[in-house]
Amino acid sequence: MRVNRRSMGIALIAVTLVGGIAVVLRASHHPAPGVHSVAGKEIYYCPMHPMVTASKPGNCTICGMRLVKREEENPKEKQPEQKILYWTDPMMPGYKSGKPGKSPMGMDLIPVFEEAQVSSQDAMVSPQGYTAIRLSTQKQQLIGVSTAPVVKSRVVKTIRTVGRVMTDETKVIHVHPKVEGWVDQIYAKYEGDKVTKGQPLFSFYSPDFVASQQEYVGALNAVKETLAHENAEIRSAAEATLEAARQRLRWWDVSDDQIRELETRGTPSKTLLLVSPIDGVVLKKSVLAGQFMERGGDFYRLADLSTVWVDADLYEYDLPLVAVGQQAMVTLPNISGARMTGTVVYLSPFLKPETRTATARLELANKDGMLRPDMFATVEIQVDLGEQLVVPEEAVFDTGMRKILFVAKGEGIFEPREVAVGAKGDGVVVVQQGVSEGEPVVTSGNFLIDSESRLKSALTSMESGGHSHAP
């Protein structure tokens, strides 16, 4: 089949499958920038498709991008034209010709320039499927090539994750009576109420409690009657009975202040008042006025929130970097600029199968009460990895199977290297082998360099079994 490129307009797009990769080649009769120029005239071209030129502003006919003005070349600084090695057909990579023309398929031949040739020594060190390439300064500027040296630097990895504020379980108190009875009055009425140590929670009537008070008052009167008794054994027995009655009241959560009030009053009280044993908040309330309460009922759950936990999820590859005792920064998304320091107090020995994460528990001071249970927070744990050989993160080209760096060898030569990488730091990647300190590596434009390197490698392997056309 013969195809006339001129009838197809500005560019012809040829697609060929090379080494399993679909390659799109564009050929055009427009001059490439820097190859031809018209003295005294302004030339506009497309940065993405340099072959598209015009004598006035406009848009690229291929991609629609705005054309940019090409600066007029200085004849004294004009680079020599590149030498054409041979002509080939993009649809027949093994076909070569010494002059322009058409291939046996009727396609216009395109030139292969000298800049694409690199010594075999450079190509030998390249990974399989890659080859070293040479790019002119002009082409490097067009694709935006930039480099940075491989350096030794102190690497700090920041692990960022999310966490949830939890109640410190070691500071949770359950309040429940140890006798049966009926609830009288409720003082701490709502869940979330703040309470202080000694503050009344509720009162209740219990026949057992009234009987114990009567027993204590009787023992107290017996001790008073034996004070003047000469027999020491009688006095000792009365005091032992009083102490046993006092201890029984304490076991029923009667405070020493309430016992002293009973001693002063001299008569039993109908109801027993239960008070808060800590400063904290009411997490749960399960009691109503007039309710019959059974022995051991869980009526109040209180928590001291002066310290809280933050449970953060760590992925399994970050777990070896975190240890108990490590510091972490906690940020509340709902409070701008609020950053607090916590300490890792626990690492879960198990992974959650649904998320493949493990829990790292942080302990934080919460004196101002900003951290509330079930709040979400952002957690940052900084890990010092010491001094390592590093490259910028954008320099590593990940093919999925390998990690590739492109090393600038000078004179426009870029050599692909397969490297072994380690942990990622803040903006850098640790390189374990493959490059040396001080070597410049490509940090921008490496995607296009990768494509050209692999294309050249594929074409070279096909040409080894191809044929050429005599001029």
Secondary structure elements and their pairing?
Blueprint: E1 11-18, E2 21-28, E3 43-45, E4 53-54, E5 68-70, E6 84-89, E7 92-97, E8 110-113, H1 120-124, E9 133-134, H2 137-143, E10 146-149, E11 151-167, E12 172-175, E13 181-186, E14 194-195, E15 200-205, H3 207-226, H4 232-251, H5 256-265, E16 271-275, E17 280-285, E18 292-293, E19 300-303, E20 307-315, E21 327-331, E22 339-347, E23 357-365, E24 376-392, E25 397-398, E26 403-410, E27 413-424, E28 428-433, E29 440-444, H6 446-463
Antiparallel strand pairs: 1-2, 3-4, 3-5, 6-7, 6-8, 9-27, 10-29, 11-20, 11-24, 12-19, 13-15, 13-18, 14-17, 15-16, 17-19, 20-23, 21-22, 21-24, 22-23, 24-28, 25-26, 26-27, 27-28
Helix pairs in contact: 3-4
Strand order of the largest sheet: 11-20-23-22-21-24
Low-confidence stretches: 1-40, 73-79, 120-124, 466-471
Mean pLDDT: 79
How much helicity do the residues have?
Answer: 10-25%
Number of helices: 6
Quaternary organization = single chain
The total beta strand count reads 29
Main sheet record: 6 strands, antiparallel, barrel
Question: How would the global form be characterised?
Answer: rod-shaped
Give the distance, in angstroms, between the N- and C-terminal Cα atoms. Answer: 23 Å
Proportion of residues in β-strands: 35-45%
Structural class: alpha+beta
Instruction: Return Rg in Å.
Output: 42 Å
Explained architecture:
The protein has 471 residues and is α+β, with helices and mostly antiparallel strands. Among the domains are: 6-114, no CATH class; 159-168 and 305-383, Efflux pump adaptor protein, beta barrel domain (Elongation Factor Tu (Ef-tu), domain 3), CATH 2.40.30; 177-296, no CATH class. It contains six helices and 29 strands. Strands 11-20-23-22-21-24 form a six-stranded antiparallel beta barrel. A four-stranded antiparallel sheet has the order 12-19-17-14, with no helix packed on it. Strands 16-15-13-18 form a four-stranded antiparallel sheet. Residues 1-40, 73-79, 120-124 and 466-471 have low confidence and may be disordered.
